């Protein structure tokens, strides 16, 4: 089992920056891919960016340039740097991790509880 805890969500003024962190805790599984998603009220959760264990990244095209994903495998942590924030970025941001437990061949996706980001105009 993997536990994911997001932090860093806050109220920020438009044009400001914010860095989200997600710490993964596990004593069984090996974590491979990690990702950030966000969910607007009444809408489906959408991908922001994903990153492999080796550091390869893939971004939602519309967010390229403003958002940057990174990870520290030694700390089991993934980050999301957000710059030039807009009111439209207001949402709950979720951390995702894909992991394999010892002796298990099917990967499992895990989700954090989410952290609120609110951007004021």
Task: Explain what you see.
The structure is a single chain. Helices cover 0% and strands 55% of the residues. The protein is built from no helices and eleven strands. The chain has strands spanning 3-7, 11-13, 18-25, 30-39, 46-51, 57-59, 67-72, 77-82, 91-100, 108-111, 115-120. The strands form two sheets. Strands 2, 4, 5, 6, 9, 10 and 11 form a seven-stranded mixed beta sheet that branches. Strands 1-3-8-7 form a four-stranded antiparallel beta sheet, with no helix packed on it. It is elongated, with a radius of gyration of 14 Å.
Estimate the global geometry from the Cα principal axes.
elongated
Please outline the major beta sheet: 7 strands, mixed
**Run of helices and strands:** EEEEEEEEEEE
Terminal Cα separation, in Å? Answer: 40 Å
- Radius of gyration of CA atoms, rounded to a whole number: 14 Å
Pick out the low-confidence regions. none
How does the helix and strand content classify structurally? mainly beta
Proportion of helical residues: under 10%
Number of DSSP helices? Answer: 0
Number of E-type strands: 11
Beta-strand residue percentage: over 45%
Please, what is the average pLDDT? 95
